[in-house]
Amino acid sequence: MEELKKRIREEGKVIDGDILKVDQFLNHQIDPMLMKKIGDQFAAVFRPAGVSKVVTIESSGIAPALMTGLAIGVPVIFARKKKPLTLNGGALVTDIYSYTKEVRNPVYLEKDMLSPEDRVLIIDDFLANGEASLGLTRLIEMAGATVAGIGIVIEKAFQDGRKRLDRSGYSVFSLARIASLDHNRVSFLDD
Ligand code: G4P
Ligand code: NA
Ligand code: NA
């Protein structure tokens, strides 16, 4: 997505050669006009897969997921990092490993949110090692539902996540694919 790549080039800041900071439009301040276009793009790609729900994980996945759900016309669910006090039918839970913090953290999804008929599109802001996306696939499959695809706003193609998701057989589409952040410079895979 050219407009997204332009924003990354102009406003992204690289930290320590492997973290891309995009706090001007995605991770802190959110640009709703850009998110709208991101949602439209994901909808165009994944609508044919017969999506009935969009699932993401709080917090930064919510903005692109919401716009995707709006464009397709289906509900959006965010998995929670803290156990809600208000669970009705009980929670599905899985641990997600954080490479940066070297800890496992649980994420929760209320059991009744998904049913075996659901075809679920996963949306997330970043794909690095794939732990978050793979955790969401586990929650969706625990509910008996089907993963219809995985949409990623910014893929760090130099990390293992994409390979792991491809190997698991999921249909993955990323709007911007970063080949390298070496020397604190962004280069895209298709430059
Ligand atoms: P993984 O899920 O692909 O394995 O990613 P990883 O554990 O490495 O990432 C942990 C957190 O860091 C995630 O956010 C992820 O979106 C974010 N992240 C990973 N790489 C980058 C990057 O280059 N830039 C930015 N800005 N974020 C990155 P989170 O902890 O779940 O937080 P939230 O922002 O969604 O609340
Ligand atoms: Na994040
Ligand atoms: Na995220």
UniProtKB/TrEMBL annotation:
Gene3D superfamilies the record matches: 3.40.50.2020
Subcellular location: Cytoplasm
Chain sites annotated for binding xanthine: L20, N27, K156
Record's keyword annotation contains Ion transport: no
Superkingdom classification of source: Bacteria
Record-level Gene Ontology MF annotations: xanthine phosphoribosyltransferase activity
GO cellular component labels: cytoplasm
Top EC group: transferase
Keywords: Cytoplasm, Glycosyltransferase, Purine salvage, Transferase
Biological processes, Gene Ontology terms: purine ribonucleoside salvage; xanthine metabolic process; XMP salvage
EC annotation from Swiss-Prot or TrEMBL: 2.4.2.22
Binding site for 5-phospho-alpha-D-ribose 1-diphosphate: A128, N129, G130, E131, A132
Keyword hit for Disulfide bond: no
InterPro entries in alphabetical order: PRTase-like (IPR029057), PRTase_dom (IPR000836), Pur/Pyrimidine_PRTase (IPR050118), Xanthine_PRibTrfase (IPR010079)
Pathway linked to the protein: Purine metabolism; XMP biosynthesis via salvage pathway; XMP from xanthine: step 1/1
Catalytic activity: XMP + diphosphate = xanthine + 5-phospho-alpha-D-ribose 1-diphosphate
PANTHER family: HYPOXANTHINE/GUANINE PHOSPHORIBOSYLTRANSFERASE, XANTHINE PHOSPHORIBOSYLTRANSFERASE
Subunit structure of this chain's protein: Homodimer.
Family according to the record: Belongs to the purine/pyrimidine phosphoribosyltransferase family. Xpt subfamily.
Record function comment: Converts the preformed base xanthine, a product of nucleic acid breakdown, to xanthosine 5'-monophosphate (XMP), so it can be reused for RNA or DNA synthesis.
Name under which the protein is recorded: Xanthine phosphoribosyltransferase
Organism, as annotated: Sporolactobacillus putidus
Gene from which the chain derives: xpt
